[in-house]
Amino acid sequence: MRHARRHIVRRVARLAAVGGLLLGGTMVTRAVASEPPDASAAARTLARPASGTGAALVSRLGDARTAGHWVGSDGRPVVAVTDEDAAGEVRRAGAGARVVRHSMRELKSAVSALRSAPRVPGTAWALDYRSNEVVVRGDSTVSGSDWSRLTGVARDIGGFVRMERVEGAFTTRLNGARPILSTAGRCSAGFNVTDGSSDFILTAGHCGPTGSVWFGDGQGGREVGSTVAGSFPGDDFSLVQYAGGEAGDGADVVAVGGGKGVRITGAGQPSVGQRVFRSGSTTGLRDGQVTALDATVNYPEGTVTGLIETDVCAEPGDSGGPMFSQGVALGVTSGGSGDCAGGGTTFFQPVTEALASLGVRLIVSPEAGDAGPGPAPSQPAAGGGGAAAGAASPGASAPVTGGNGSTLLSRLADRRNVGPGLLVVAGSLIVLVATRWIRVERDRSVYRRYYSATWG
C-alpha cells in the first residue's frame, strides 16, 4: 500500500513537472515575441488642471472680458471679469467672479511693452491676477539709474504696473530630489521621462549645456548620464539621458528626503493660489503657493519667459528639482531670490511645455485611491492658509529605491520579461531530476536487499 502511494506521488510530480515545462516554454515564447507597449497605451501623462472650471470659463469668455483665474481660499475657482454679464455667467457655472478694470489683453500688452524695453538684468515681472496688475520687481543688483528708466517705461504703460524692489538677487539655483553633479556644479534631478525607447531626467536647462556629463557622487565614480537636449535662456529645461538607457526601479517616484518619496501620476498646469510642493537636494521638501503665471525673469545669463512664480523658498543646488501637488508634476526649479531662512520667490519651468518641446512623456504610476497621506514639508509656507492650501498634499507616499538600474528580482517578476518563464522551466527541470534520482536510489536499494538475501 505504501509503495502504491509513493508511486502515485512520483507520477503526479512528473506530470506537474512536464506541465510546468510546457507552461514556462509558452511564457518565454510570448515574452520574446511580444512587441513593446504602444506609446498611446501608456499611462496618461497629462492631468486635469488644478482649476479646470476657471480655465474653461476664461477660454470661453475670451481675453477681452477676462483677466485670469485663481483658486480662492475656499478652494473654489475665481475668475476676473471686466463686466457684470460675464460675472453672471461665471457664477452660474459655479465659480466665483471678481469684476476688474483691466482685461487680460491689456495686461499682456503691458508685458509686451516691458519686453520691448532695454533688458535690465536682475528684474522680473509677472501678471498678478488677484490685484489686476503687472508687478515688476528689481533685485539688489539693479542700479538706481536702470530702475529709474524702467519705472519711466511702467509709467508710460499705465497705473496698473506696480514697481517693487526686493532684497537679494534673482539667480539660477545652480549648485532636488536627487543631487546630480558635473563640472558646471550641482543640480537636482527633476522628473523621469521617456521617449519610448530611452529614459531621461528632466531638469533645468541652465544646469549645463548639451554634452555635460553628470555623476551621482562627488568622486565621479557613478555616472548618471549626459545632457542630450535643452533650452536656456528663453526656456529653462534640459534632458539628461541615463547612461544605461533606463531609469530603473522607482522611476515614478520623486525623493523628498529621509528615504521617502512621492509617486507621480501625471503632469498638469498649476493655478494661481494653488498649494504646491518642491523637493531639492539642498533644502528638502518645501511648500507654498503659486503667486503668478507667465512670469519673465532677467537672469544675468539671459531672459527666461513663461515661468511659474511661487512663494516657495529655494537655495543653490535646488535647480532642476521637481515641483508637484497631489502627485501631479507641475514644474522644475529655475531660480529666484531669497533663501529658506527668510523666505523668497522661486520660479519654475512648466513641465507641460518642456514635455511638448522635447517630445517626451513622464514615467508615471497609476493613481492610488487608497494611498496614505504624503510626507509633510519641512517648513510650512508663509501665509499659506486657507482651505485650498490646507487641503492639498504632495501626493501618495512611496519608498525611494536605490540607484539606477532594476534589481534582478524586479526584472524577473516583470511579466514582460522572459524571467518568469525561465523560473518555471528551471523549477520543472529540478522536479523531474529529483523524481528520477529518487527512483534510481529506490531501485538501487531494492537490488541491494535482493542481492544480500540471495547470496547470504
TrEMBL record:
The lineage of its organism: Bacteria, Bacillati, Actinomycetota, Actinomycetes, Kitasatosporales. GO terms for molecular function: serine-type endopeptidase activity. Belongs to the peptidase S1 family. It comes from the Bacteria. Residues 368-400 are annotated as: Disordered. This is S1 family peptidase. It holds the Pfam family Trypsin. Residues 389-400 have a biased composition (Low complexity). One of its GO terms (biological process) is proteolysis. Signal peptide: none annotated. Residues 197-354 form the Peptidase S1 domain. Residues 102-154 form the Peptidase S1A alpha-lytic prodomain domain. Keywords: Disulfide bond, Hydrolase, Membrane, Protease, Serine protease, Signal, Transmembrane, Transmembrane helix, Zymogen. InterPro entries: Pept_S1_alpha_lytic (IPR004236), Pept_S1A_streptogrisin (IPR001316), Peptidase_S1_PA (IPR009003), Peptidase_S1_PA_chymotrypsin (IPR043504), Trypsin_dom (IPR001254), TRYPSIN_HIS (IPR018114), TRYPSIN_SER (IPR033116). The chain crosses the membrane at residues 418-438. One of its GO terms (cellular component) is extracellular region.
